[in-house]
């Protein structure tokens, strides 16, 4: 009886060990598969989106459309292009005395360029309609300066 119990115990220990070794080997295999998958993903050349160089934009072989933009409007254009998910490149033309800026967009995104231009113009119009904060500030400064100043008397009385 004792010998039978010992044999069962040994068999249980051996089967448990085999199970653990199999589990460890399976885990290592999964990890190696994950590493290879990650390496393969890294190896692919991800498509560049948003702001990029003209060379990269034209390298996508989809043609390009361009539009002229003012220097002050570049940041606003970048925000709107990011909103619409457009790939673009900004190029400075130094041949003209006040330099001009051109925005190149993929030909496929030319409809989005039209929408961006419309929204940019609408924002510019509302910006012109807004009153100047500095003008209002100077107006209120003059108003405050014209008001009579309060005269405070500093007296301390002591009570006993």
From TrEMBL:
Q: Which Pfam families match?
A: DUF3801
Q: Matching InterPro entries, A to Z?
A: DUF3801
What is the protein name for this chain? PcfB family protein
Species assigned in the record: Enterocloster clostridioformis
